[in-house]
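EI: anyone free to look at a 236-residue chain?
SC: sure, send it
EI:
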Amino acid sequence: MKKQTGFTLIEIMIALLIGLVILSATISMYVNTVKGSTDTINSARLNYDIESVMLLMVNDLTRAGYWGGATDGVDSSTNPFIAGAANIQIPTAACILYSYDAPSALAVNGDGIVNNGEYYGFKLQSGAISIRSADTAEATANCTGTGWSALTVPQDVNITALTFTTAYKCLNVTTSLSYDTTCAAVVTAANLASGEKAVESRQFNIALTGQLAADTTVTKTLNGTVKVRNDRIFTQ
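SC: here you go
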């Protein structure tokens, strides 16, 4: 009868060591896979939020100055949405104010006058992008009036920077001033006489930076350009 023998202590220890190595490698691969998936999800979430906010701002700012009363033969310089406080303003680098003729139950293309709720804006406040829809023009120079509501949630995505910069061009004037020269600057340079009109082409550059509140190492910066479709008719 053959004698039965088992594993020696050394063989058992070696087998246990090999098992532990394999188990550690498996756990490490699982952890890395989960972490990679989490980072991908977080990055996708940040990208979605930042890109959605940028798209909203670009699309809405494009409409600035739209006038439902702009019919054939009308004097475009009388557009109320490019006059005074209804015109595009940037009181601070992180805030922009504007207006446009919004559709209503009475007029699909707007009724041609600046009504309640047609003063709009975007600004950076306390780590969030705020949007404005108010009955009156912003009364303060630092965008602290009424009608603002948060568009993003800082507990999820923290907006760290928002900057609006202008690139205006005063057209059909006899001047060699650079592209980013407003019609007001043309007047100052004595290139536009009293009573004369000029077209002001308006463009904005937007820089937006945000980070995940749960992981500040996940950040994204996005740049956008807005060419306002409705040029301003400037009268000196």
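EI: Residues 137 and 152 are 23 Å apart (CA to CA).
SC: 👍
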